[in-house]
Q: What sequence folds into this?
């Protein structure tokens, strides 16, 4: 007779697990079906993010400018030292040649005196310390030997200094490359965000900027004109209105913020440093906006990474950031706090 067995019933734990899994699957499916599609960021949200990226890019730009300026300075210093070494070596060769001629003459007469022995010694300093023949040397011979030794020490020092500066130059070039890459990365992120906007939204942003700049221009033109060198620098900056911002640029077709201000003062006959942080130390600091005069340098953000020229009535002329041009702008819309002005 066949055996009739009852089918094995699933355990209570297994039933619970299966039930829970099924419920979760149903819930996830329901959520996926009812979930709203991810919302596209608004024009204002994109602008806020882009402005932040541009600010970070400008911070990196001023560090890039500082590294570039240091590189150029080191290259000039190294070139000067190398020229000095070349001239010094020629002088040393001439001194040695004159001593060589003296040695040849004494050899022909069969009397090589102690001065020539000193010159031919592998360790002249040691020879001078140990020899008791200095009184036997003529004053002229002693002077010639001392000149040779002095020139050798100068050349050794110059070569050592050049080697140290070359190391510094190599690290500066590395830093320059890093900052350039950082700037380019921030700008690429900003452009990617801007590409999410429609043509209509981009046009609206451009119109807003143009309207704000026109309003600032009207305020600035109502201010009193600048005077002296500061007035001349300001007038020159006015002639550059409309030229694009490009990081690292100092004109004449494009500028970054400190590139514009340094070039403006150069046009007025005053040389000021390249970077905004360095420009902050070139004159008398003015902490009250009411005390500013047209043409004064004005600095923004805690790290002083942005600078412009005061235009009167709380307005400035500056090169704001990538995607903009040299323009008038209210100090209240620069994007960072006003720190102080500098009267050059």
A:
């Amino acid at each position: 007779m066949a055996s009739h067995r009852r089918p094995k019933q699933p355990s209570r734990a297994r039933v619970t697990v299966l039930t829970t899994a099924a419920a979760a699957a149903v819930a996830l499916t329901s959520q996926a079906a009812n979930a709203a599609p991810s919302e596209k960021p608004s024009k204002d949200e994109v602008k806020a993010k882009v402005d932040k990226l541009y600010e970070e890019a400008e911070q990196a730009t001023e560090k890039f400018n500082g590294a570039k300026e240091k590189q150029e300075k080191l290259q000039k210093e190294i070139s000067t030292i190398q020229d000095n070494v070349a001239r010094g070596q020629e002088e040393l060769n001439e001194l040695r040649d004159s001593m060589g001629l003296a040695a040849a003459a004494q050899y022909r007469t069969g009397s090589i005196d102690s001065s020539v022995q000193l010159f031919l010694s592998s360790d002249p300093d040691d020879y001078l310390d140990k020899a008791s023949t200095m009184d036997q040397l003529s004053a002229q011979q002693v002077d010639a030997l001392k000149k040779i030794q002095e020139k050798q020490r100068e050349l050794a020092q110059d070569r050592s200094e050049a080697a140290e500066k070359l190391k510094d130059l190599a690290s500066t070039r590395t830093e320059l490359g890093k900052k350039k890459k950082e700037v380019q990365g921030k700008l690429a992120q900003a452009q990617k965000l801007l590409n999410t906007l429609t043509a209509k939204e981009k046009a609206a942003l451009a119109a807003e900027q143009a309207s704000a700049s026109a309003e600032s221009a009207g305020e600035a033109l109502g201010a009193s004109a600048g005077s002296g060198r500061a007035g001349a620098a300001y007038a020159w900056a006015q002639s550059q209105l409309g030229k694009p911002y490009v990081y690292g640029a100092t004109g004449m077709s494009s500028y970054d913020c400190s590139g514009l201000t340094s070039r403006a003062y150069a046009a007025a006959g005053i040389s000021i440093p390249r970077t905004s942080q360095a420009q902050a130390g070139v004159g008398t600091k003015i902490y009250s906006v009411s005390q500013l005069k047209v043409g004064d340098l004005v600095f923004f953000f805690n790290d002083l990474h942005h600078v412009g020229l005061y235009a009167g009535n709380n307005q400035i002329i500056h090169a704001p950031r990538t995607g903009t041009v040299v323009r008038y702008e209210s100090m209240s819309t620069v994007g960072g706090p006003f720190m102080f002005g500098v009267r050059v």
Observations:
- The mean pLDDT is 84.
- The beta strands are 284-286, 297-300, 306-312, 315-318, 327-330, 338-343.
- The first helix runs from residue 12 to 34.
- The first strand starts at residue 284 and ends at 286.
